[in-house]
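Standup notes, protein team

Yesterday: finished cleaning the Neisseria leonii set.
Today: VENN motif pre-toxin domain-containing protein structure.
Blockers: none.

Input for VENN motif pre-toxin domain-containing protein:
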Amino acid sequence: MINLLGKAVGNTAANAVQGRLNAQNAVENNAMNRLDGLTTDERNRLRLVKKYGTDIQIISEKISNGSILLTKELADYIYTINTNPNLVITVHNKEPVNVVLIEKKRGWRPNKSVEGEQVHSARVAYNDFSNWSVLGKVIVSKDKNNRYRIIPDRYDFEWQSGLSKLPRNIETILGSPGAGVPFTIKYTGEPNVKD
């Protein structure tokens, strides 16, 4: 072979060694040496299957009795393996969830579902990341005795219309685990409500 300058190139021992090193490097960098045929997402899914299993009833019972915490990773996993749109996951946190009231212009308004209660829009405090990443924006209900509760809500990744929903929709895109079936999260503890 002759290069552009008219010099003979190739067919030397040094070129052969360099070619072998390049090929070995390509194989190592392309993860061909693992030969398991799995993508990073598939490896992560297998890790979750080993960690939690695939029986949603057992997972739900463990969350309900407090033996496992409903994290964003677990909620996303449930979302991807769920086939029952009526699934309800009951959460009993040892510590109250901190929520901050939002949409203060709307204020407290009557709860149309429960007579004598009022509801207010809120979000889980950002310093409570594990709960914020799962629950996000919530509706808080207040009874006549000023006891609070979080209204059960769907864990889904559906877009909401309106310009004011843009930040929420961006969070939805960034946090979505992909295809799945929504389910309801029922938080049973009384939250700490901050004005």
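Follow-up from PR in the comments: Residues 1-35 form one domain.
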